[in-house]
Write a sequence for this structure.
């Protein structure tokens, strides 16, 4: 912190701060908050909102007191700890000043230091003893005088209290850091935001300063999902149903696809597919069937077959390559390990072979001779009893092939047998270590060397407790962040180095390690561990039955298989007599009934297996509204409803509002495919202002409420349009070069109005026009030209826009005086209603003082900003009802409903008092 800023905050010493350290911590907290992104972005947005003005305001007594209040508890603790540390420092300083140093009191410490250094450097004993004797004589001489006794007493007290002084200083530093963090987070930062808002003047929320725009860069909705009423309703319905078909209906862009993706993500097994724009029922079911098979194969951890290359060689290579990769990776470690272990234990194996080999060979040969003799006797019929026993044993083996109890017993016998033998092979060397006299003598020698034993024990414990796996945390050391994984690795390396040092410097440990019987012990332990692992090993099971069925169905659905068999009969190579027969077998694609039956059977088995595991199966069919009209959508449902109704399966179908309305009218004198295809309907309505706020805050954190209201009104609460208009707001900010709501909204609304009227002009160009009606089209053209030219003459633009919206002067096309067709009149009425909506947005958002006018408008029920979004939705229903709603909104906001347009009341911005400063 600069000296000029430090003096700025130290002016309150004795008023707010009791110590200079408190003022310095407060100044550091202010400077750190000034570097916060949400503060830095707003500096300089309006005149007077500068860093110097904030520093001056924060240095005021009132603001300093306000900032301290939320952190009063930690400040009191810091003051107590700092007072104790300062008192300890002062006492130690008094002791230092009271000490008297001269040649008498200074020589004993120097001589003691020299004696210590001589002893550490292993000097000859006479030098050490002589220096120590001189130190003792000097000490006695100094103690003989009063000043020496007083000085040595003070030194002793000083040295004893030095750890206490250091501890109190550390405790004060820790308390200061705690108070600094508490002050910055809970005191200075919130107050600085209020000070900055005051410096920015009235309506600071009308400035566009979101923390991030990243959410508007992507159209993906899954990372930015926000819970809504429709999502809760769908979850509740699925929880109350074991299976069934639920339609999700709503206007386009209302979030039906996002809802399906969110539901699909949370369930265990799900298949999501899209309805084709032009469909054939059989093709769609084939596509859904294939997606089901592929999804289930992948969910079970297997790879779905790829038919891009259908050659036999390619399929064989793709099947073999995963096994080759796994085997190669395993062998790359197994071969070196086996070679190294074999090389290290070869001598032990050769010793064992020489010691016990002849006996084992003789016993094996004797056993083989007995078995061979028994087999020969049974074969020749000389041992009838043994033959009958073998025959009965064969029958028992055949009968136990499906007896799970016997198979489990044999498996347990194998596991327990190998485990027992392995444990024995591991335990015998461990017991032999304590019964070997030579090892016992070497162990006693190692224990006799205290330094070697203690170092070895410390290194062993250090190695055992230095597990670096699954430890990604860090430790802060000053400015550096050190990973605990590296710390553990360094500790293990040091422990290994310590053990190696003990091994090299001490013969007792070398004798323990290089004992002649150790290779045999190691070989026994390795063999025992290998037997235990072999007993625990289980071969990888084959493909489950359902996976094989899915794979077979994929071959059936996506390939045409042909098999040709040829048989040739003939004799003699000179004169050939015979015949040739060829047979070709080709699979026939399944017809629709067979396809539906196979699909339902497979899906039923999959759903049953998931249901037994307590999990759900979901089939989501999206974009059914792409079929064009409700007639085509209902026809599609009627064709494919045969696949619905599978037990334990939830079908989620995304449909347009027309289909949902048809389902609601069931039971009335009206019946269609929805009555027999759907079990329930979830209506996804346009979002409310609160839901739009959550969506925008997730995509652009920090966006202010006025901009949320603007984007919500333009989009009508439709989530897809909400994101699009949010992106347009950011584009307009770059284009206009301003962050003021009035400027951004004015440019955005006029651009959007120009694009919409351009679309209406295209539709009007397709109508039949007469010369008498051409003035309307000419006035329409001039209005669009004025919109395209920008907001230079805003007053004239408002006048023309008001005339067009209210059908006055040259835009009077509703009085029946002009020969306009019905379709032309309808288009003009719709265009003028949208212009009226845009004019209302301009009057509401395009004038300074939105926040204050919004507070006054809330006094009326028609002043809720949510009604602007409802007016936008009403434009899709009827321009007349939309115009009526807009009139009510304008009255609530104090805007003119008829007559010449003028600026709304409450325009202009006035400065606000800054907290902590007096207003003139």
């Amino acid at each position: 912190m600069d000296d000029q800023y430090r003096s700025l905050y130290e002016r309150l010493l004795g008023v707010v701060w009791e110590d200079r350290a408190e003022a310095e911590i407060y100044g550091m907290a202010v400077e750190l908050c000034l570097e916060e992104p949400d503060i830095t972005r707003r500096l300089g947005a309006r005149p007077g909102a500068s860093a110097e003005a904030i520093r001056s305001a924060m240095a005021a007594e009132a603001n300093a007191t306000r900032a301290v209040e939320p952190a009063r508890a930690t400040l009191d603790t810091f003051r107590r700890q700092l007072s104790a540390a300062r008192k300890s420092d002062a006492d130690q300083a008094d002791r230092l000043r009271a000490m008297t140093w001269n040649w008498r009191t200074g020589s004993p410490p120097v001589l003691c230091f020299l004696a210590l250094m001589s002893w550490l450097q292993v000097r000859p004993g006479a030098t050490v003893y002589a220096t120590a004797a001189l130190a003792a004589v000097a000490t006695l001489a100094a103690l003989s005088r009063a000043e020496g006794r007083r000085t040595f007493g003070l030194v002793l007290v000083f040295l004893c209290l030095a750890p206490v002084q250091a501890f109190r200083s550390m405790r004060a530093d820790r308390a200061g850091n705690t108070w600094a963090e508490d002050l910055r987070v809970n005191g200075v930062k919130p107050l600085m935001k209020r000070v900055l808002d005051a410096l920015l003047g009235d309506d600071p929320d009308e400035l566009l300063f979101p923390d991030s725009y990243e959410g508007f860069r992507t159209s993906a909705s899954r990372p930015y999902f926000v819970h809504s009423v429709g999502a809760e309703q769908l979850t509740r319905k699925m929880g109350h149903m074991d299976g069934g078909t639920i339609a999700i209906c709503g206007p386009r862009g209302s979030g039906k696809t996002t809802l399906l993706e969110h539901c699909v993500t949370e369930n265990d097994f799900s298949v999501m597919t899209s309805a084709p724009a032009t469909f054939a029922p059989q093709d769609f079911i084939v596509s859904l069937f294939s997606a089901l098979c592929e999804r289930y194969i992948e969910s079970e951890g297997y790879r779905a077959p790829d038919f891009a290359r259908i050659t036999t060689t390619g399929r064989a290579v793709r099947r073999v390559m995963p096994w080759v990769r796994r085997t190669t990776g395993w062998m790359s470690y197994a071969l070196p390990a086996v070679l190294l272990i074999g090389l290290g234990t070869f001598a032990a194996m050769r010793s064992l072979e020489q010691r016990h080999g002849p006996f084992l060979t003789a016993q094996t040969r004797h056993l083989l001779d007995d078995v061979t003799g028994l087999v020969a006797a049974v074969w020749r019929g000389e041992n009838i009893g043994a033959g009958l026993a073998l025959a009965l044993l064969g029958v028992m083996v055949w009968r136990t092939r499906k007896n799970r109890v016997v198979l489990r017993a044999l498996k347990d016998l194998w596991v327990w047998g190998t485990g027992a033998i392995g444990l024995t092979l591991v335990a015998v060397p461990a017991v032999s270590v304590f019964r070997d006299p030579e090892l016992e003598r070497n162990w006693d020698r190692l224990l006799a060397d205290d330094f070697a034993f203690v170092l070895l024990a410390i290194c062993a414990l250090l190695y055992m407790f230095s597990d670096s796996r699954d430890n990604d945390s860090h430790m802060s050391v000053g400015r550096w962040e050190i990973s605990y994984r590296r710390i553990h690795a360094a500790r293990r390396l040091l422990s290994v180095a310590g053990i190696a040092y003990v091994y090299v410097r001490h013969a007792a440990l070398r004798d323990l390690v290089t004992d002649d019987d150790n290779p045999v012990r190691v070989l026994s332990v390795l063999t025992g561990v290998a037997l235990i692992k072999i007993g625990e090993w289980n071969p990888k099971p084959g493909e489950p039955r359902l996976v094989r069925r899915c794979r077979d169905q994929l071959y059936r659905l996506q390939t045409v298989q042909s098999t040709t068999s040829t048989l040739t009969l003939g004799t003699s190579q000179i004169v050939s007599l015979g015949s040739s027969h060829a047979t070709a077998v080709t699979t026939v694609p399944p017809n629709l009934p067979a396809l539906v039956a196979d699909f339902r059977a497979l899906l039923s088995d999959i759903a049953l297996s998931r249901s037994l595991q307590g999990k759900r199966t979901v089939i989501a069919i999206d974009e059914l509204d792409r079929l064009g009209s409700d007639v085509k959508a209902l026809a599609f449902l009627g064709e494919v409803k045969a696949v619905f109704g599978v037990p334990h399966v939830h079908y989620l179908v995304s449909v347009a509002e027309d289909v949902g309305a048809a389902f609601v009218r069931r039971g009335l004198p009206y019946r269609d495919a929805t009555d027999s295809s759907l079990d329930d309907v979830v209506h996804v309505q346009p979002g409310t202002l609160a839901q739009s706020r959550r969506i925008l805050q997730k995509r652009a954190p920090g966006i202010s409420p006025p901009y949320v209201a603007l984007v919500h009104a333009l989009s009508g609460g439709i989530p897809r349009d909400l994101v699009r208009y949010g992106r347009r707001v950011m584009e307009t900010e770059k284009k206009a070069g301003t962050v003021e709501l009035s400027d951004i909204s004015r440019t955005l609304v006029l651009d959007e109005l120009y694009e919409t009227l351009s679309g209406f002009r295209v539709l009007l160009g397709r109508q039949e026009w007469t010369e008498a009606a051409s003035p309307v089209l000419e006035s329409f053209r001039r209005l669009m030209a004025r919109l395209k030219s920008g907001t230079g003459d805003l007053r004239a633009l408002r006048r023309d826009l008001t005339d067009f919206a209210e059908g006055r002067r040259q835009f009077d096309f509703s009085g029946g005086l002009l020969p306009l067709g019905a379709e032309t009149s309808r288009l003009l009425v719709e265009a003028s209603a949208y212009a009226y909506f845009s004019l209302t947005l301009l009057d509401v958002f395009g004038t300074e003082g939105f926040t204050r006018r919004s507070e006054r408008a809330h006094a009326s029920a028609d002043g809720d900003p949510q009604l602007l979004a409802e007016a936008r939705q009403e434009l899709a229903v009827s321009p007349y009802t939309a115009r009526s709603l807009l009139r009510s909104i304008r009255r609530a906001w104090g805007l003119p409903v008829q007559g010449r347009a003028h600026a709304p009341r409450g325009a202009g911005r006035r400065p606000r008092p800054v907290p902590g400063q007096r207003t003139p």
